[in-house]
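Field reference: "sequence" (input) and "structure" (output). Example, AraC-like DNA-binding protein:
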Amino acid sequence: MEQIITIDKILQYNDLKGVETQHPLISVFNNSESKALPNNTRMHFGLYAIFLKAGKCGELKYGRNNYDYDDGTMVFIAPGQVIEVNNPIDYEPTGMALLFHPDLIKGTSLGKHISQYSFFSYDSHEALHLSLKEQQIIKDLFTKLEYELSQSIDKHSKSIITNNIELLLNYCIRFYDRQFITRENINTDILSKFENLLNDYFISDTAQEVGLPLVGYFADHLHLSPNYFGDLIKKETGKTAQEHIQLKLINLAKERIFDTDKSVSQIAAELGFKYPQHFNRMFKKNTGYTPNEYRNLN
């Protein structure tokens, strides 16, 4: 039977992995020197976790696709997320691991900006895949954190540790930007599918049945997490997914407003607005005219 384990403390995870706890709020270790996690287990994390995997990933449940690099994979887990452990019989842990408690970064620069690292909410199949040079940079930062934890804790420890974690995450932003670029063909295909889904949403009765289109709807249909989908669209086009949806709504509204056989309320309903006044407000904000004024002007 599948076991469910809640990991709220660094000590709990370290005990599972058989590694020493040097600090109550952070742990950094070489995964190849630790035990494999219990198999057929679901783990609910109350911690931030960053894993650098070497070779094939067997420890976490992964829907592997064809990626840019096979040399290394980074996985990011945020508090509240759940992972599944399904190891093959001959699996041996590889790579490095960094876990830290949310309390570690409270009151720090990292704590104020942790939400900007949207990849903590990416799905596992949207993991970061590193070149050998990129891996070395990440390994060096892991090593610096290991060194700092091996020293006696003093008044500088917290700032040095959190600054190095922040630097590591900033490098990951850079490497994800590279990954978006090197997967240009795949991204173009996703953009095309997004545009088709957006068109179908309004051609069909979906808008009337479901309401205004949401970013999550399209991400789900494209089998992507909302954050990854949003970041991909922004990096490829310079506009957010929500801005694309809004632009589509405005253009369709402008076209349909000329159908004088339909009232403004009917057009609003066809576009997914629950209340006509919300449609009127959105239309005027974007055009400078109410729907009726726009209709009369043209």
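The beta strands are 3-7, 26-30, 41-45, 48-54, 72-77, 82-85, 96-100, 128-130.
The chain has two domains: 3-182, 185-297.
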